[in-house]
Structures are given as C-alpha cells and as structure tokens.
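Feature request, filed as a ticket because there's no other form

It would be nice if the structure record came with a short human-readable summary line next to the tokens. Right now we just get the raw output. Example of a typical job, pasted below so the devs can see what we mean:
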Amino acid sequence: MRRIAILGCSGGGKSTLARALGDKLGLPVVHLDALHWLPGWVERDRGEFRTLLTEALAGDRWVVDGNYSNTSDLRLPRCDTIVVIDRPRWLCLWRVLWRWATHIGRTRADMGAGCPEKIDWAFIAFIWTYPHKVAPRREAGIAAYGGDARVVRLKSDRDIRRFLRQSV
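Raw output as currently delivered:
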C-alpha cells in the first residue's frame, strides 16, 4: 500500500487510522479538513482547495483522509487502496460529541489552523444523515474513480485493529 484514501462519516475514525497507517508505513498523511478550512472556519475557494490537494498528492506515497466527494476525481484514481470506515451513526455522533468535549477551544492537528473544535446543528445533521445523503455519493465516487484500487470496508474497532496489524 502506497496511496491510500480513507473515507467515512465524521467521528468514524478516519484521521486516527490515517495517522496510524502513516506511522506504520512511513507515509505522509494529508488531512482534507486541514486543506479545506481557513482560520475561523471559513471555507477555502473550491479551485484553490483542488489545487492544494493536487499538490499534496503529487508524490507516489501518501494516506489521505476525508470525504469531500467533489474531489473524488483527484484522489481515487491514484489510490491503490480505498478504506471505507462504516460505523453506526449513533457511534459517530457519540465520538464527535466526546471529541468536542475533550478539545473545546483547541484546534486538532488534522484540522485547519485557527479552527478550534466546534459542533453545531448542521454538523450533527451531517452525521445523522450521512448514511443516506453522503454515503451514496461516496459509493458513486468509488465506482466512477476507484479503478483497480482494493476497497477495504471496516465496520468495527476490531476490523480496524486487524487491518492495521495486517498492513504492510
């Protein structure tokens, strides 16, 4: 595995898995949220975001985590492995609430600079509706752009631990 995309709902463990794979395999990690968000939770211009992403993925080895289905055409054709973390939405919501409570006022390393942890109704709605609004776009992106990439689907912490152990 040299070029890995990790997809899934917020709170599912994408960034955690990306960091672990990056450490284990010696791959640079690209967090899409860090590229997308400007300080103060301002969305970066779409064209600029796509340019930054293209530059970040120019190398032959990386792990990229995040959804942003409007960039599937840039990421997925270059992947040799696509990892889909498919966790129950109640668990994703619980983990996001826990993350918010433990990071209040601080910016995580996988987030854009100047974007302290926050939660709002729109984000909660995104998580709750992810299975029927976002997941179909994710699957369409995999079908359209995934090519010959191996698709790995992880549904539990045990699946994730096993995948990490077997990753070489």
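Something like this underneath would help us a lot:
Helices lie at 14-25, 32-36, 46-56, 72-75, 89-103, 121-133, 135-145, 157-166.
The chain has a mean pLDDT of 94.
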